[in-house]
Design goal:
single chain; alpha+beta; eight-stranded antiparallel sheet; 8 strands; globular
């Protein structure tokens, strides 16, 4: 059982991920945006992710490479449209293996005042077919694993902040 909720409504072009993290919003934002932390949670655990470029600023760009155990590379990139610390991240997402199929990703962080933060990630695709293709690729399993790994990074950051 995962703590990550994934909403995929028939006929729509979006996917919504939601999860509550046991940490203040600034820690969650840091885990999501600090280039040295991203490889610790981005992608499946059995992949090695390298951050080639990550200019986390409005108008900046990002470029990540994930490698599987056989060394096969999966390349991803995008542009940051809005970075509003520690509330919101808006960026494009494109997998180079499916060039031209770009989604717009918006992450919003809501702090409840009790030390927890709700992460809501909305991915909007160019068509329902693109969205359905992403779902059929097994993204739900990968997203759940990534969010669990993100929770691990956040837990370590939170514990260090309490020292």
């Amino acid at each position: 059982m995962s703590d990550t909720e994934i909403t995929v409504m028939p006929g729509r072009q979006d996917i919504v991920l939601s999860r509550v993290f046991d940490a203040p919003r600034d820690i969650v934002f840091r885990a999501c945006t600090e280039p040295t932390l991203v490889p610790r949670w981005w992608g499946p655990r059995h992949y090695n992710t390298t951050v080639e470029r990550d200019d986390v600023a409005t108008g900046g760009s990002w470029y990540y490479i994930s490698r599987d155990e056989e060394g096969v590379e999966y390349r991803f990139h995008g542009v940051y449209h809005d970075i509003t610390p520690p509330h919101r991240i808006v960026a494009t997402f494109e997998y180079e293996g499916m060039a031209g199929h770009v989604s717009l990703e918006t992450v919003t962080l809501w702090e409840d005042g009790a030390g927890t933060t709700r992460y809501v990630g909305t991915s909007v695709f160019q068509s329902v077919a693109d969205r359905d293709g992403m779902v059929q690729s097994g993204m739900e399993e990968g997203a759940r694993e990534g969010m669990s790994r993100l929770a691990e990074v956040i837990r370590v950051l939170r514990e260090r902040a309490e020292w």
